[in-house]
């Protein structure tokens, strides 16, 4: 079976997770140019917007990049645009993308399934996916399963055998990368660290909170559900979450501030409190009150950096993992 990571011509198996609207073309292109794989969130952009986005990507980089689709929403027309535009890696989240695998492969792209359980991993293998992302509960944003990265990844690796596995959730520096490789992963899927990338389309207030928070400041809940109900996610604690917790965690429509609008998009449309999206740099209003996606590793993110520097630092973990593997082989020969 061809190696999907090698087929993408990556220097480093560092995959930038598709962090919603925060994942700008500039960020994805910078990651890919640095030897990793940049990723774009494509579910909430219409086909015309995607055509323009992919055209921008073609101007910014000649390297492969990925397009992600969330299966709780209609994606047919959007997926068609991505494949027609020659996107090299297509990933699916929040549902079984099996029905799209043959279509993706026929277009010459790599098919990736993000999973959060061992059962989902088996299903992805049976469907013929090229890569599986094992997302641990530590991850920021929407979280698919209940197991932590440390326990999920090696079990998925053992079950899937030769099928390459990427580790996601709580990986934000070279130590996390080395640990993921030691668990048997072939690469990593990183979101929270790239919130601090210079190229990220992130609201300045949101970025500052990322840089000054730690793992204790995150909350796993279904609180930000307007637009995407029944979907657990991990966010930074903020005024919205604190007021909700102080009120005894009531359900809709009894949550504090239910029905209020907290921010506004450039087109003038208003964003309600408890909306599921994160604030991009062009949002006006109370960005701090919105859903601020971040994983438990956020306390290891200390500075804004160019995406290339982040990829380089993460890739240092691959060298550590290689050194450990070399020591093991040497010890085995000596024995």
Question: How would you characterize this protein structure?
Answer:
By secondary structure, the chain is of the alpha/beta class. It is built from eleven helices and 14 strands. It has an eight-stranded parallel beta sheet. The protein has a three-stranded antiparallel beta sheet with strand order 7-11-10, with no helix packed on it. Helix 3 runs parallel beside helix 4, helix 6 packs parallel to helix 7 and helix 8 packs across helix 11. The protein is globular, with a radius of gyration of 19 Å. The relative contact order is 0.14. About 2% of the residues have low confidence.
Average residue pLDDT: 95
Name the helicity range: 25-40%
Element pattern in H and E: HEHEHEHEHEHEEHEHEHEEHEEEH
Largest sheet, spatial ordering of strands: 1-9-8-6-5-4-3-2
N-to-C span: 33 Å
The number of helical segments is: 11
The beta-strand count equals: 14
The main sheet comes to: 8 strands, parallel
Unreliably modeled segments? 327-332
Going by helix content, strand content and strand pairing, the class is alpha/beta
Strand content: 15-25%
Shape: globular
Q: How big is the Rg?
A: 19 Å
Short description:
The protein is α/β, with parallel strands linked by helices.
Features of the shown structure:
335 residues; eight-stranded parallel beta sheet; three-stranded antiparallel beta sheet; 11 helices; 14 strands
Task: Please specify the SSE layout and strand pairing.
Elements: H1 4-7, E1 14-16, H2 25-33, E2 38-41, H3 47-60, E3 65-70, H4 76-84, E4 89-93, H5 101-106, E5 110-115, H6 118-127, E6 131-135, E7 141-142, H7 149-160, E8 165-168, H8 174-182, E9 187-190, H9 204-212, E10 218-221, E11 233-236, H10 239-246, E12 261-264, E13 270-272, E14 284-285, H11 307-334
Parallel strand pairs: 1-9, 2-3, 3-4, 4-5, 5-6, 6-8, 8-9
Antiparallel strand pairs: 7-11, 10-11, 12-13, 12-14
